[in-house]
Each structure stands twice: as structure tokens, then as C-alpha cells.
Amino acid sequence: MIELIDVDKSFTIHSQNGVMLNVLQGLNLSVDKGECLVLDGPSGMGKSTVLKMIYGNYLANKGQILISPNANLKVDLTTALPRTILDLREKHMAYVSQFLRVVPRVSALDIVIESLTKEKNTTTSVWQDAQEQSKDILSKLNIPMSLWSLPPATFSGGEQQRINIARNLIKEKPILLLDEPTASLDKTNSRIVLELFLKAMDKGAAIIGIFHDQETASVLATKRLDMNQFRKNS
Ligand SMILES: Nc1ncnc2c1ncn2[C@@H]1O[C@H](COP(=O)(O)OP(=O)(O)O)[C@@H](O)[C@H]1O
Ligand SMILES: [Mg+2]
After folding, report:
1. Per-residue pLDDT band at 33 (split at 50, 70, 90)
2. 121-165 pLDDT, tens per residue?
3. Whose CA is nearest to atom 25 of ligand 1?
4. Is the minimum distance from the CB of 23 to ligand 1 under 6 angstroms?
């Protein structure tokens, strides 16, 4: 479902007279249905960069990034049109970044509902159904009901992280990109989140994950990749 072939990524730092920062060279990886690939390696090795290239936030300098969520669709992210990338995200790819980025003043519940439907009309059954599902996942993730109507800006790190997980996992998608999704969570909530990921894998999702916590990593990983080897000159 996910295949990277001979991918290079460098950044040009314009504020430093165009200095080139070579981050990844000759990266190959593949992840199939029901698999979880864990990216290992110290900070600065380009792990988050890999997820951002697959999600289409960063453009690779070389190579192919092939995404095939089903038998009828195969997209190369390095050449895809923005519209194709947006469609792929909307229907097939979830990306849980380490931090929650949301529009200010929108309540936690509305943030989750909006990832299911944009149709803001309390009389439609689509909206009501989305609202029920959203309440379900917020309860499952232990977000106190007293917080549902509040914007998450003032929530604790762990609460924000769980809102982030709720909004990205509520719609079942075949590809999950996870960037330290449990970093701010206590043991109980980590376990709950871990169960959600395992359930997604059971249903056939392909996952690429970065985890600071080795216990979580070893429960989820069906294979692992040491990112040190894709550093230039190493
Ligand atoms: N948008 C960017 N512009 C310039 N440099 C970047 C950018 N994103 C990442 N980098 C650099 O790429 C390297 C790898 O970063 P990252 O992928 O975040 O590493 P990791 O997730 O393994 O800690 C770092 O040196 C980082 O500073
Ligand atoms: Mg990172």
C-alpha cells in the first residue's frame, strides 16, 4: 500500500545563504495491508520528514512515493497534482502529528464532528450520526464531557493529543501515519490509543509509526527500519 523507492530529501536553508541540508538518501521501504512499520533512530534522522513526504507536505527531491490504498488506485506523491493529494488524504490517509493544530474557538466536539461531515445542520441525520460517533470516540478516549464544548487551546498536552487522535481516527482510513501519537499520554490512555491502532491493523490498515516509547513500538511493529542508514556519508 505504501512503497518508497530510492527517495532523497534535502532542504535548502534560504536564511543561511542557501545551505543544503541532506536529510535522507536512497530510502526504500514498503508497508502492506495489516502491517505496521516502525521507524527507529535518534532525533534529527528524518523520521518525521518521511511521514510528511508520504502525506504530501514535503516534496521528495528524487525517487518515487507510491500509495495504493486499493487495487484500483496508485498515486506517486512526487508527481501527483495537489487535488489528487487532497483527495487521497480525505479518503485514504490519516496523519496524526505530534501536536494538535486547529482553528481557534472551535469546540473539541465540533473539531471531531467536522472530520466526519462539513454539513453543519442539526436537523440532518448525517450530522446527528456524526455527533453520536464523535461523542463515542471522545468518551472512549477519556475526554471529560465538561471539555467537549470548549476549544482545545487550553487543554493539557495529553488531552490535545487525544483530540488529535479522535479527529484523525474517527473516519476509518486504510493508511495511518503516526508521529509520536502517545508522547504526552499516561499509561492508561496510551493503552486505549494502542488498542485503536491494533484494531485498525486488524481491519487491514497499513501503518507507519514513530514512537518514543519502546513498549508501544514493540506491541505495534510488524517490522522496523533503522533510519541511520539513509543519512548521507554514513
Ligand atoms: N521544513 C524544514 N526545513 C529545513 N529543515 C528541515 C525541515 N524539516 C526538517 N528539517 C531538518 O531535517 C532533519 C530531520 O528532521 P525530522 O524529520 O524532523 O527528524 P526526526 O523526526 O527523525 O527527529 C533535521 O535536521 C531538521 O532540522
Ligand atoms: Mg520527528
Report:
1. very high
2. 667 888 889 999 999 999 999 999 999 999 999 999 999 999 999
3. 44
4. yes
Q: Which atom of ligand 1 is nearest to the CA of 179?
A: 21
What percentage of the chain has pLDDT greater than the value 90? 84
Residue among 23, 43, 55 to mutate when testing ligand 1 (max atoms within 8 A of CB): 23
CATH of domain 2-230: 3.40.50.300
Residue nearest to atom 4 of ligand 1 (CA): 11
34 neighbors 92 (Cβ within 8 angstroms): no
What is the whole-number distance in angstroms between the Cα of residue 173 and the centre of ligand 2?
A: 22
Residues flanking ion ligand 2, Cβ below 5 Å: 47-48
Q: Where are the domains of the chain?
A: 2-230
Instruction: Give yes or no for residue 48 CB within 6 A of ligand 1.
Output: yes
pTM higher than 0.85 for the full model?
Answer: yes
